[in-house]
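Section handout 9: paired folding examples.
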Amino acid sequence: MVQVCLNGSRNAAGSGVVPTVPAELADAAGKAVAAGARDIHVHPRSPCGRESLAPGVLTPVLEAVRAVVDVPVGVTTVAWAEPAPERRAAWVRAWPVLPDHASVNWHEPGAEAVAAALLERGVGVEAGIWSGTDGAERFAASPLGPRVLRVLAEVMDPCAGSARETAHGLLRALDAYGAHGRPVLLHGEDGGAWPVLRLAGELGLATRIGVEDTLLLPDGSPAASNAELVRAALRELARGASEGGRPWGCGTAGRNDAGPGGRGTLPRGR
């Protein structure tokens, strides 16, 4: 399963390919799904471009994207969109339209409260475990762990030469501490995006690609869109499969058994 990450925190003025407003996000989502993406991750932005979890910002994005796609749509709950943990949880409880899932960075203050609010509302939780943090240890100790939709193993090493080894280290940490048997989506960013995506393919894990993670194609040329990145990702994964990738066999953290699309039996949230 390839998830597309449409925008993230990138500055739209810096590239010209970063969608921000609902109409742009819907267009990018539709084209990415047509290219082969099977799940969507988006950072809603206010009209002035600021990331926000406010209902008035999130609702138009979800409605616009869902008007053109029929795959799960997820959003972020990243702390810099709303630094106060209690405020993040309050926004979740106030959402009139629900995403299918939302990512929660487990190393951030208030992660448990935000995840609990999402689960209370029937929204799937993607547990974001960043390399270089204590997220894996915190997640292993969480009573909410068995209830999350999946683990996002997020390799924050932007160096192409070392990201693959950093990814192995993160997966070893998840295996050592325990990932509650949840399926894993492995991805990298910037220079590490493509090496980590190839590793995910070799290990039989879900992955993601999009302008949140990289603005470049595997050959180093600029990507024109999220859809172009998705097409390139599927080519890379197919090439890896033809060369004989192998599934990851280290404990339960590598199991990606959430069913079609990596989403198990999670109902479509509204």
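Moving on to protein 2 of 2.
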Amino acid sequence: MSKLVLIRHGQSEWNLSNQFTGWVDVNLSDKGVEEAKKAGRLIKEAGLEFDQAYTSVLTRAIKTLHFALEESGQLWVPETKTWRLNERHYGALQGLNKAETAEKYGDEQVHIWRRSYDVLPPVLADDSEFSQANDRRYANLDPHIVPKAENLKVTLDRVMPFWEDHIAPDLLAGKNVIIAAHGNSLRALTKYIENISDEDIMDVEMKTGEPVVYTFDDKLNVVSKEKLD
């Protein structure tokens, strides 16, 4: 049976300052570094060994993966980075303080933007300092593919081709896989893996730096789920 470990990146500098981050590339905080290292120690204690690693193209997830693999003695494991595992794009909310945004638009509206499955936040303008329109990471993508705002539904649509083409085939081949990514890209995967409803996914949280371990049978049915802490 194959295993899949999901880790939301450790606390980032903007998690700490309570800002909407999305596709903005911010670093881990000191606490986030320690969370990532702790994840690696928990993985080692659990005896988990990986054949393949995946992460996004954002620094906080990449570093989390590297710290976790290093602490578990597996930094050599083959690794693939993809924009499809990026955090949900928060549109024009990116860079804004969450509390100040709630004061401006109201708690209910901000809650809808943050947690609803299919409501888009305001679209980000290409000339915003937080836009990815001219980011070299995405230069080889059709410009129409690079989002200017996403909800969880759009994020799931973006993640699924990578699951189908890479992650699922690895698991079906009996490989153990680790993914270090983001709260919403991992929530999207969780929704698919566990067949969670559009309503119930709103209440699903991913803790920073907490490894979530799935065990699958040879038909990719979930046999067990465990959180390491």
